[in-house]
């Protein structure tokens, strides 16, 4: 079955409204909705916010269910040249807040010892996402997404990453945990995030507050369309 993970109720609302829910399961404090969406067998999970919550949720999914691939969806902050309302698709994902440079100068800022610097998303899933985005005439970019346990309002925090990665387009709080867990369980994944706020904008926080629900709905609706057109073997 296809797993869809989102952090907040706002990001799950449209998915759950359109889903035929057959079973609701709870593992730890995480809720898993099993059923059909767009004619596909799915398990939709609410992770909660942040890296630990996302890692717990993804691990539980990988251990308990037979997962074909994982979609992590929801909102994110955008970095130049991304605009509010754009969609960012993961070429790959990295940490925004890992720093062990003082004890291991060979590791770049952002890399956890023993783990990849960037975890790359599944090429076929990324290409299929982009095909659907093109068909639906969405504004989108494929790039690197960074995750950390912080709501970022100042791009200076991301400078150590941006000096290395020229196509870091979005920042949020879960996708690297989903990605690294999926990578360790050898399960394909893609991250699809709608941009709710533009980092460094003087009105960023208001932008987030005013648009988060609409952008979450738009992004979830896109995921439903993606699933409708989705064929695993083409
Ligand atoms: N989710 C949405 N906007 C975000 C931001 N600016 N930083 C972190 N997570 C976000």
Describe this structure in words.
The chain is of the alpha/beta class and 234 residues long. It has one domain: Rossmann fold, CATH 3.40.50.1580. Helices cover 33% and strands 31% of the residues. The protein contains six helices and ten strands, in the order βαβββαβββαβαβαβα. A five-stranded mixed beta barrel has the order 5-9-8-6-10. Strand 2 (20-27) and strand 3 form a beta hairpin. Helix 1 (9-18) runs parallel beside helix 6, helix 2 packs parallel to helix 5 (175-184) and helix 3 (123-135) crosses helix 6 (204-229). The longest helix has 26 residues, at 204-229. Adenine binds at residues 75-77, 151-152, 171-173, 196-197, 199, 208.
Q: Based on the coordinates given, report the CATH architecture.
A: 3-Layer(aba) Sandwich
* Unreliable sequence segments: none
Shape: globular
CATH topology: Rossmann fold
Residue share in helix: 25-40%
N→C terminal distance: 17 Å
Number of domains: 1
Widest sheet: strand ordering: 5-9-8-6-10
H-E order: EHEEEHEEEHEHEHEH
Q: Strands, helices and their partners?
A:
Layout: E1 2-6, H1 9-18, E2 20-27, E3 30-37, E4 40-46, H2 51-64, E5 69-78, E6 87-95, E7 119-120, H3 123-135, E8 140-147, H4 159-162, E9 168-172, H5 175-184, E10 189-198, H6 204-229
Parallel strand pairs: 1-4, 1-5, 5-10, 6-8, 8-9
Antiparallel strand pairs: 2-3, 3-4, 5-9, 6-7, 6-10
Helix pairs in contact: 1-6, 2-5, 3-6
Bound molecules: adenine.
Residues 75-77, 151-152, 171-173, 196-197, 199, 208 line the site of adenine (ADE).
